[in-house]
G-protein coupled receptors family 3 profile domain-containing protein (Pygocentrus nattereri), 877 residues
Amino acid sequence: IRFFITPLTLSVTAFVSALFVAGLSPAECKADLVSCRLWTDAQLPGLSMYGDFIIGGIFAIHYYTRSDTANFFRMKLELRFARAMEFTIQEINNRTDLLPGITLGYQIYDSCSAVSMSVKATFQFANGMDPFFNETDSCSKSAAAAVPALVGDSTSTTSISMARQLGLFGIPQVSHYATCACLSDKRQYPAFLRTIPSDHHQAAALARMVKHFGWTWIGAVRSDTDYGNYGMASFLKAAQEEGICVEYSESYYRTQPRSKLERVANVIRRSTARVIVAFVNSGDMRFLLEELARQPPPPMQWIGSETWITDPDFLRFNMCAGAIGFGVPRSVIPGLREFLLDLSPAQALKSPLLTEFWESSFSCSLKGSSEGARGCNGSEDIRALQNPYTDTSQLRITNLVYKATYAIAINVLLIYFLFNHIPLQILNQLKRVNITTKNGYQVLFDSSGDPVAVYELINWQVKKDGSLEFVTVGHYDSSRPRGQEFSMSRAISWMGQQREVPRSVCSESCPPGTRKAVQKGRPVCCYDCIPCAEGEISNRTDSLDCLRCPPEFWPNVQRDSCLPKPVEFLSWDDTLSVILTAFSITGAFIAVCVAAVFYKHKTSPIVRANNSELSFLLLFSLTLCFLCSLTFIGRPSEWSCMLRHTAFGITFVLCISCVLGKTIVVLMAFRATLPGSNAMKWFGPPQQRLSVLAFTFIQALICVIWLKISPPLPLKNLKHYKERIILECGLGSAIGFWAVLGYIGFLALLCFILAFLARKLPDNFNEAKFITFSMLIFCAVWITFIPAYVSSPGKFTVAVEIFAILASSFGLIICIFAPKCFIIVFRPEQNTKKHIMAYRHKRTLMRAKRSLSFELVLTCRTYQPNASIQFNVSAAV
């Protein structure tokens, strides 16, 4: 059997062994001969102080990967955090209102930003075997944890490792800087709390800010750690909900090969996105900015997370001018600066961390601490230093350390006063804590162990001397109502010191009247603006779809709103209407004038020759025909629609009936001249009136039935034209309409046939011939009308109908009455009975001569052997 020993196996073995050691009770120890010890060498604390109760602290004072200027800077910043914990405990110990006589101590370790170091220090706290406080190997001394609670760590990755171990023992952990949203899961991290907001809130705030400024095309970089990966995942989810597209999302870590960092920098340089969201911790961000500084990219609008957006060390990178991001609110801790500066060489020698700080700050060596370096002579002035340790103008994270320590210390004293010292009781009390610190800040946690998310919007602005400074330009408070969390207090200075908000979009916004069409294979923020189709609109920017206008509406030219369709009908002010009206009135006026002429000469032979009563009735009906065309002009209404068709049908039947009566009179008059004929007896004036009345009554009956069953009513025709409405008179019943026209056509055809048969009869003044011409014109007009009516669009349909009415009416009045009026007015000598009789006698003789003419053809054939003879004989008598 072969065993494979891996680092994971060793870690699990060490963890189980530690649990075993921690779980031993004095009863299980046979005697003091049993030795309990850690498997590895114990780690000494960087700062410590004895007390009745010890509060643990773990801070990432060093980068375990580097020992350069960056490490020096990090050390001084984190050392300030550690000493802030010292200051808080001393401040509480000095209070007389909190259990006098009880002293709190501390034990602070350096995790060096390494998981292994933080876990090692955690086990020393948890199993009670810290050699600094437990100088014997007796098991009885390791029955309880060395600390009831601890503060730390400064990174999410190390805090996660610590929280997994401390949760097993129920030891509370309150972090001042671990923002990973994953730590809010109480099933995995039941003993973890923090005084800094979760990245869930920061990610949501960043996404809303990006959306607020109209940036839909951004780049994203993150640390390849729990902090960066979880934080960016929360941000990308929130960004997707806000409709923000990410051109790229790159990750790196400072220990990865340099080629990875160079690749990330090149992606940023080639990017078309002008906005970059950087969820990066300070150490990784420094690497990235240094790499970009070698070949600076085009101006970028940086959006930073809270770890680096308030880090003073980055103010030397001028290419980040205009950067914005959410940071922990700045605060004031009275007395802290004096405490930090109250440090002497003698005090520094008591702590390895303070010794390193003093020597690195003044470039000298304290007595007995190192060899080969200039010795410190005591003239060093710590107040003259300008570094993160002495800079208390931006107390942001430092205040969170203060609040975390304050919450733990107060609860330790409270538990001691009320109960026995049991860590689980400390945890339960911490979850319900609601206290106010000495400097006026409230400390409380929600059910996930997180505080209320409150941020300042930090903007990197250029000062007059060209250097950068942090300026608070807004605030974010998650406890406010939704939509009101974000507020602005000052103007923002953007990249390149611009005052206008920079644009960062993959595609420009689609204006109203267009819709977005996503480009194939690209994010949804990359699209083409497609004009809305005919009949559709979009009334807002970046519309995804175009909306079809209601049936009676049509888009404007920009296609961003629906306007009522113009209603088209043959209105009175239309040029065509004016022309048709003029012809209509002219025709009616001519009919009246002809009637006046006939009335003035009503006793003249030419008026009396063919039933003057029918002539006057015909002129009256023609006048109505001319005037009924006016009912077709104007806005259609119920009464006008019913009137125009019925008036047209009845007046035209009346007109044709009169013409038909006159034609029959001509035929009857000729037959009456034959010997023994009494035709006029059967078609005298009474019969003529009755026939006209009967023909007209039939049309009136058809119209009544039509109006009763389905009358013509106003109709909005939406089908013929898309962009306008044709307001017309619907036929109602098409059968009724064509019945009216059919009856008119039947009478007109009958009249035409009879007039054609009577065209050569010896009537008065060739009246039958003129009736034939008028009927020929009438029939031609209405036969042509049918296809023209069907194919004419809109108001021209009505115009065609009016034209047909006027044309047929003018044809009748000109062909029938013009010759007679010409004789009455210009040839009065022909308007005499003698002339009429002579004309009639002449026509009669000519007809008789034609009837008595004949042709006689006689054909004789004789047959001879060699010839054939044919004779034609014609004779006329």
